[in-house]
Design a protein that fits this description.
single chain; alpha/beta; Serine Threonine Protein Phosphatase 5, Tetratricopeptide repeat; Rossmann fold; 3 domains; seven-stranded mixed sheet; five-stranded parallel sheet; 15 strands; globular; disordered N terminus
């Protein structure tokens, strides 16, 4: 079994504690001993001691069990210790160990509370190894509760006192945390080391080709030679620098001219060319674009033959799902292709095919992760009664259960006049009303009662149109469930900027296009096509991102953990060569839509 990195760090730190002979000040007391390797002997010795000596040995036993991956036994020993005679140093040790065990159970909120104990005011007086251990646990808890910037800040703070493998792992984790931040989180903070890291991240999130990114990174390291990331470039960037950049000289844009959703196709095309002309205006090398009409293509084989004869190195398109399915069913393609839609889930595609679209399934998985990080554990769902709703619900429930969450129930929205009854059923209000009637019948008199809803639903996952969502929120309030948090997909946002008071407090995932108002590409597109500021903006953004992906597919495939910062989200390539999106989180307020920011530390 592969040992988790978190446990490896703990084991390394335990070795450091053995080697570190320094002790806390006399007023804080001694840390538990670390010389034991036999758990049963350690417990026997602990039984012979009293007061703080016994506490120290029992803590050492709990820690040894944890190092030996006997997690349940570690918890049992720790919970059995009488801490009333513990020294401050022992309390810090115990709270840290308890937090590590909580993290292993995916209880990050509890871990953070433990690490905020007043005893940690004295952490700076502890041996360095204990300081590192406690702060690494805190960094992990912050990360697991959806605070990557705070987690990175914690790791940057302890970096100067780390050594060896711990220092290396910590360095890589800083980059992993910061490189996954959204662009709106990359502003300067006034903290020198952190700002240096953020500047480096900004370079990798620019809409540049691989060669341009490589040149920018090299220039940054020369300009900031004393920064930790310049002295030791993160492994991901080392790999990026080693790639041999290959610029596309000629590409094919394959889209239909006659389609039932031609307005969507036109938006895709306009967004694509807008990004192309903006790159030209900025002096970046751009490919020659050849346009092909998929509406008139009788055979994909003949298309590829023609494209190859005309020097095409990359195909962007098709958009039509049947054509994408057809390509995915082949064993190989003659030209690398970035399809602007997805084939059926689970369909094995050739290695030359990449797939990109605005899949709502990505948002369903994001909602599960966001709710989990917020401490939610029991979910219910409201989704439309159609194939789209079924797909969204399947994606959400599968990912939610993978995280360890409990799924309570789902209702499929169909007719507005049934909504109130569906919500009443979801929260078992009718059962509550029936119990009241039975009580009245038994007593033979009227009883003043208020229906009580079930209390085992922490939040609702919602996939609905703006019109449906405006009915759902008041219906929840009417059914005594107005306080239940709602996490929704971007479908609840019309994109028009219009805000309805009925949606106040609803959180939803949304692409950067609607929240990065100062984005240069967005401004360029919306100046030419004002309608892009409405709901069609999603497809203008997708067209622009397709152009950006054209030059970044090489690194996304070569470096599995790399990403591209687009207008439709942070874009990553999964093992099936499908682009997956990570979006921002936003919240409806009474007067506006605001981005949900990472909360500050307590």
């Amino acid at each position: 079994m592969k040992t988790p990195l978190r446990l490896l760090s703990t084991l390394c730190l335990s070795a450091l504690l053995v080697a570190c002979s320094s002790s806390p000040s006399n007023t804080l007391g001694q840390l538990p001993p670390t010389k034991y390797t036999d758990l049963d002997k350690l417990l026997l010795d602990a039984n012979k001691k009293t007061d703080s000596q016994a506490v120290g040995l029992y803590l050492a036993a709990a820690d040894l069990a944890w190092q030996q991956q006997q997690t349940l036994r570690a918890r049992e020993i720790l919970e059995s210790i009488d801490m009333s005679t513990a020294t401050p140093a022992q309390i810090i040790f115990a709270k840290t160990l308890e937090a590590e065990l909580a993290l292993a159970r995916k209880q990050a909120q509890s871990a953070l509370q433990l690490l905020n104990d007043p005893s940690f005011q004295h952490l700076g007086d502890m041996p360095l190894a204990q300081q590192i251990r406690s702060q690494l646990a805190r960094a992990q808890a912050l990360q697991d509760t959806g605070k990557p910037l705070a987690a990175a800040r914690e790791r940057i703070f302890i970096a100067p006192i780390t050594e060896g493998q711990i220092a290396f792992d910590n360095h890589q984790q800083i980059w992993a945390l910061l490189s996954n931040l959204q662009r709106t989180q990359l502003k300067a903070t006034g903290e020198a080391d952190l700002d240096g890291w953020l500047a480096l991240v900004r370079l990798t999130k620019a809409n540049n080709s691989l060669a341009q990114q490589q040149a920018s990174i090299t220039e940054w390291t020369l300009t900031n030679p004393q920064h930790p990331a310049a002295k030791q470039l993160p492994e991901a960037l080392k790999q990026l620098q080693q790639l041999q950049a290959k610029d596309i000289q000629t590409l094919a844009l394959l889209l239909p001219s006659q389609d039932a959703n031609q307005n969507v196709v036109n938006a895709l095309r306009n967004g694509f060319f807008a990004a192309h002309y903006l790159a030209q205006a900025n002096g970046y090398p751009t490919p020659n674009i050849r346009i092909y009409d998929s509406s008139t293509i009788s055979s994909m084989d003949s298309f590829y033959q023609q494209a190859a004869a005309e020097g095409v190195e990359l195909v962007v398109g098709p958009w039509e799902k049947p054509l994408v399915r057809q390509l995915a069913g082949r064993t190989e393609l003659p030209i690398t292709t970035l399809a602007l839609n997805y084939a059926d889930s689970g369909q094995q595609a050739p290695k030359q095919l990449f797939q990109y679209g605005l899949a709502a399934e990505d948002e369903a998985r994001m909602a599960a992760e966001h709710a989990w990080a917020d401490g939610m554990r029991r979910a219910a769902a409201l989704v439309p009664k159609n194939d789209w709703g079924d797909r969204i619900l399947e994606a959400f429930t599968t990912h939610w259960k993978t995280l360890g969450g409990e799924f309570i129930a789902a209702k499929h929205l169909d007719r507005p006049d049934q909504l109130t009854g569906q919500i009443a059923d979801l929260f078992e209000l009718r059962a509550s009303e029936q119990r009241s009637k039975q009580l009245e019948s038994t007593l033979g008199t009227k009883v003043a009662t208020q229906p009580a809803r079930r209390q085992d639903i922490d939040f609702i996952f919602l996939a609905a149109t703006p019109q449906q969502a405006r009915q759902i929120k008041p219906a929840l309030t009417f059914q005594y469930a107005g306080d239940v948090p709602i996490y929704a997909t971007s479908a609840v946002n019309s994109g028009s900027g219009e805000v309805y008071p009925e949606l106040n407090g609803v959180e939803f995932s949304e692409m950067p296009w609607f929240l990065e108002h100062d984005n240069v590409t967005r401004a360029h597109i919306s100046n030419s096509w004002p309608q892009a500021l409405g709901s069609m903006g999603r497809f203008y953004a997708m067209g622009a991102d397709a152009y950006q992906l054209m030059s970044q597919l090489q690194q996304l495939r070569a470096l599995p953990n790399s990403s591209s910062a687009g207008l439709t989200g942070t874009l990553k390539l999964n093992s099936q060569q499908r682009i997956e999106r990570t979006l921002y989180w936003a919240r409806f307020t009474k007067n506006s839509i605001e981005q949900v920011k990472e909360t500050q530390l307590d």
